[in-house]
Amino acid sequence: MIKVAINGYGTIGKRVADAVAAQKDMRVIGVSKTRPNAEAFVAKQRGYPLFIADISKKTAFEKAGLAVAGSVEDMCRAADIVVDATPGDVGATNKPLYEKLGIRAIWQGGEDHEVAGFSFNSSCNYKEAIGRKFTRVVSCNTTGLVRIINTIDHEYGVEHVHAIMVRRGSDPGEIKKGPIDAVVLDPVSVPSHHGPDVQTVLPHISITTMAMIVPTTMMHMHAVKITTKREVSREKVVDLINHHPRMGLIKKSLGIKSTAELKEFAMDIGRPRSDLIENCIFEESIYTNRNEISFFQAIHQEADVVVENVDAIRAMMGTEKDADRSVRMTNEALGFVTIQNNH
Ligand code: NAD
Q1: Cβ 51 under 6 angstroms from ligand 1
Q2: If you measure from the C-alpha of residue 233 to the centroid of ligand 1, how many angstroms do you get, rounded to a whole number?
């Protein structure tokens, strides 16, 4: 049983905790919070021991009816590996603690590649993560990009990728962020950080990315054009997507044209937290012309990286050396079937 600590029980941390708890070979040793809020009560309801970053706040937690199991350091000492899901840039400040304790650690996409020196995606470089001390699971957008780029690269060879990201302004629970009424170029200059981030996982891929932020909380939308080395077949591309364990095809028959309808569908089919773990690629948008393929894919920012954390744990602990088997174990434990198999 791999003992996992989750440092930072927020949007990503609470999902990773549930995904870890569902695995037969893993156990949640504890989760951490900075203050007694609604998520802390969710942790209590789920039965996860609650640890706190600042132990001087113990009384405040206890007054609110939340038992405190100890400090973040106590939690890390009891674990084999820690998933750091604290806010971007906070994670890096925890590195000295993990180093001092000699514990394995996984950071999220809000940290720089350099914090771990290795960036992970289970479909692309699982084997390279085996036995590693430190790993970074790339961001939601990068996860969505590398899954499909790597798949196309294996089949046809990628000459160049051009991707435009229309990004959600905030997560649904973030009440203080915007934009409220604007399209914000993020950044104005080209490329956005996503292209170089893809190269932390797939260094040989030539890619240009552009990004903008819009007033929605639902999902990101990518418009992607890939130029390939060999001629592409649309039929084959659809087949590759259909057979990838974490890529979904939004079939024309569903009549879905938006992230709003997609999230509604996820709720209706009973996905926990209406999460869409898979790249949601719109079947009708897949267009091929000789050495070019274009498509739209929607990426659920809160969900796609969660399963990648679970696979990273297995690879780093060295308990499963085969990527496909780990992905299958993770998916099956969650009862996850890709969206095209739900209808
Ligand atoms: P969040 O703000 O929702 O959650 C962070 C949690 O960490 C909160 O519960 C907060 O109380 C806690 N925290 C803050 N400081 C802490 C500290 N010093 N010690 C322990 N806990 C602390 O953030 P999030 O959206 O879950 O993001 C976490 C990481 O995941 C970031 O690197 C982010 O870039 C990355 N990520 C986020 C998303 C997304 O859409 N939310 C998607 C992919 C990756």
Answers
A1: no
A2: 41
The verdict on the CB of residue 144 being under 6 Å from ligand 1 is no
Spell out a b/e string for 241-251, using b for 16 or more CB atoms within 10 Å of the CB, else e: beebbbbbbbe
140 included as an active-site residue: yes
Confidence at 126, pLDDT banded by 50, 70, 90: very high
Q: Which CATH class is domain 140-304?
A: alpha beta
When pLDDT is averaged across residues 165-183 and rounded to a whole number, the result is: 96
CATH code for the structural domain at 2-138+305-333: 3.40.50.720
Does ligand 1 lie within 6 Å of residue 245's CB atom? no
- Using one digit for the tens of pLDDT, what is the confidence trace for 231-257? 999 999 999 999 999 999 999 999 999
* Residue 12 CA, closest ligand 1 atom number: 26
Residues 224, 163 contacting (CB under 8 angstroms): yes
Q: Tell me, what's the pLDDT at 343?
A: 66
Number of helices (H), then strands (E), in the chain: 13, 16
Q: What pLDDT score was predicted for residue 157?
A: 98
